[in-house]
Specification:
26% strand, 36% helix, Double Stranded RNA Binding Domain, single chain, alpha/beta
Length: 221
Amino acid sequence: MRQKSFLPLIFALMGLVASCTGYRYTQTANPFQQYGVDSLSVPMFYNYSSVPEVSTSFTRETYKLLTGFSGLRLRSGWSTHSDAVLIGIIRSQEKINDVLQPKNLRVAQGVAEQNIGEQRPDFYVPGSTQLNLMIQVVVVKRPSPEELALLRSELGPKLPPQGKILFNETFPLNETFNREFFDEEGGSVVATQNAGALRRTKDTMALRAAEQIRDMILYAF
């Protein structure tokens, strides 16, 4: 007697599970299609933070992840031919100590005694630094200059998604990096090492921001 195959039943159950468990099986579909958006412009992110040189990496990583949406044509920069535009705005607190927050304070003489010497009174230096930023992401259908100015203003994060605004979310982002101390090295060497650590941290944050933007869009739509 020929045995029956259970494969059709298994595949049917997999399809039922996929339809009930969320976006993971459909995450590549264009989430904006229901609003008549088949093309999306992604211009350079605005940097309103006190941290320089973050716009390029945040824009690049977000654009790369959005290419995973099938049926959505992406255009780099501004284009009047796109159905909508994704506006990214990087913000931060005004005080630099709130943006680059020192952590793990150490007595300076304990980590660089030869450079500092024994005559100076004790003072503290951070063993690590936490970089804190806020990211606002807006998807809006063909905004006018006046609408764009409003979205970029301090009122922008408070505007609800309605009308031409399809998506408007703001979320915090932070990352910690260790600071370098070389007692016998020159100050320029130490500064270069720490600048490199900050640059790598910004790149890591850009990738994390892009992943969060993608996931938030998928959950929202």
